[in-house]
Amino acid sequence: MNRRILIGIGVVIVAIAGWLGYRQMHPPGRTVGSLMPSGSLLVLASNRLQDTVSAQELRTQISLQQLPVFAEARQRLDRFLYATADTATALTFIRNKNVRYSLHPITKTTLDFIVYIPITDGAADRSYLDKLTNPDPRYHRVLNHVFRNEKIFDLVARSGEQLGSFILTDDFLVVSTSGILIENVAERLHQSLSLPRSEPAFRVDADHWAGLTMRPEVLQSLFENTGSLVRLFLPESIDLQFRPSGSHTHLIGYASDEIGNRQDVADLFAGQTPRRIQSADLIPQTTATIYYIGLTDPTRFGRSMSRLLSSASGDFLRDRFSQIKSAAPAVYAALGSDVLLCRLESSGDRDARVLVLNTANSQQLKALSTAWQQVAIQAGARRIPPPVDFLGHKLLRLDVPELPASLFSSLFSGFRQSWITQHGNALIIANGEDVMQDYLQQVQRKLVWATDERQSDLLNNTLRPANFTALLRLNRQANGQMAVMANWPLGWQNLFDSQGDGVSSSFDNLETMAYQASYGNENILSTVVLGRTTRRASQAVQNRVLLQKRIELEEPLVATPIVTGSFSRGSAQFFAQTGTGQLTFISPYGDKIGPVSTDGPIRSNALSVDFLNNGRLQYLFMTDRSLYIVDPAPRKIQLKRIALPAGIDPTYLTRPRGATHRNWIALATHANGSVYALDRQQQAFVRIASPNQKLPLLHPIQVQATPKGMTMLAAQADGTVQYWQENGAAFPNFPVRIQRKSAESALVQLASPALLPFGQATIQVITEEGELMQLSTTGQVQKRIQLYRPVRRGVFKLFPDESQTTWLLLRETDTEVAILNQKGEQQFDVRALQPGTTIVRYHRLGAGVTIVSIKSGAFTTLYDLNGRTIGDRPIPSDFPVALQFDAQTNELYILSGSQKTVQLFSIRMR
Asked: Which parts pass through the membrane (predicted)?
């Protein structure tokens, strides 16, 4: 028996030795897999990535060359490819070759590509390789060294610049700008025994433009802070075949991968037929992110989700579901086809989320609403307050954190509290009252995807039916920068050359990214969609100021026109005030309704509120003596007047965000530094907070919503910072009187408000002399920075955007304005302004559009944050202009009032 075993072992050894000897004498043809070092993050394959593309084609359809990662791979090869050869020789060499590109980490902060180009004995290949290995010595030289018995060539410019390293095998030219990665390839070439590596069989032809295989953690990074949760829905590896969409606006990658360890997710969708998103009429235009689950058997889905939540790895979800387990089945049973989470963009960094749960009919909707409230009660809602009316909807507040996540997994987190209402046959859940109000205004005005031809086409044609969809609109980030990339590792940011300086060029070409998955018994069918729905602006009209509409009035304007509609939808309507206070309503068709008389010119900004609860928004503004509530009813203006208390500052109104007092609809300030609220029920102003120092507050004061109610932050000119709770009580250690660092007894002077940026814990304040300070919310000065002061003295100001969510810095003199970033570094300056007429405003319009408007004299000029002028000429304006941006058409709309005219201009932007 032992002898037989020994004989068997001997036979195996002889067979292995014979196989190794044969392979030594007859080595197999090299494949990309045999050359590729381990640890690649992704691998691309394409025979057209290096092709030239016409400008017309780039403007009318998406191409591989415009997509991130693809663009970076192309740029790295192009720099090497055209270094030693003329364009014709290089293009002839590369044309129709199935080139592979593998991306590898080099250090913790560096990623780079290896490119594998097939070569043959053809004349075109020999011509190019001869020029590569024997370049013109006046411009380049080729050095070489031996690593692991393999010759590695280095292409160097005469200036000493390293252009890349390469290895020549019988079958491939292997290129990389990283010498480390090329040495790893050389090491692969001379491994004594290498098991064959499985490679995806990518098709590369006229219909299939590229192949891409990647790890799931690469794809999950695309979806913001929820990336780790999105990964639950991804297969273990993804091998995508890309082809263009029917509309040529997107490239679509298809994959079919084994379920592997995603069986629990597959069980979640067992019996659920993949389908398209049905609720396009409930997705607002400002949606930046969508997470969608499609259902055809809600009850079965509920049972699967209950099992998943009962065994959740997180203690919170597991414990929470044990609380609500008895009430949850009624919620699942009442669901319709869509579970849809929308994260809305905003002009600031507010996290605005809305969950849409559609139902089959009104009876199901009533059952779902009742079941949802019952879940809230079981989860700990001790008292459900009376509903609040807004635009004909009843808004109900449920003070239970993370209620959607408790029923649909952590992917639906982000709800400190829930505001619910019914619209059509859907239950709407928002994570804040102001979020719900913004959402309902967009839905009421039909600013939704169903009314947008291109977004509707994306949902109905480009995206395919799926069980799960995650969709991200990249250029609609709230903070005007690439928020997605800010969450990526530094290596990825460096790859795209975007290190906090904005969006890289390859991402400028990408608007929509989507991942979709459908789950079968054995495979996950994946789809990745990359492209843009927004048409590119024609160079012929880009950056030109175009007059869209001109309304002639009988008398000169005395105040800024009040906008009440959307310019891009043709529904632009506004109030114009002329003469001694005659208010005229201008309809979308240019009809003049009114006028009605007020007791003087408008001094304040205007607020839109639902004061009358009649399904329309009313508008509040102040004159020197009165507050007016104007209702733009059909064919007439309804006007209501409330007298102002003596001493009220008539120049400023703001919203009572997060106030628990439901009758407060607006806030104003008093000359003695007090804050007053307009009470809807009493129809009068009531004082809600008072300072010790009887000095006016610097505008604007900042109002923020917190779980405990409204907070108010304000500053006074003598260096006092006030921080109140909703009941008027000051927070501990407030008010704070700021003193100079060098002379502790000397107080400072402030010319601008204090600001607590959204999501941060430090209050920003700057003195007139340019000392930038950070205060903790407990009143201590944490940091001081003295900014550079030029020879000619200027006043420094904190410069918040109009939504008071972020800030810049401003340095002003009587004839100059300088815009500085948050570090005090100058971005740009504008000189030769007319003294006494300058008004500067900071606009964040969403979709990454950030503008500074500077009114001086009878004109307003618009600038981006780099100081470039927007528009080819200034805008005539006697008052500050109103701005709106439409990301569908890439148009910026400007409403201005000048003398006896109101004019609407547009600028086509990139």
From this structure: 5-22
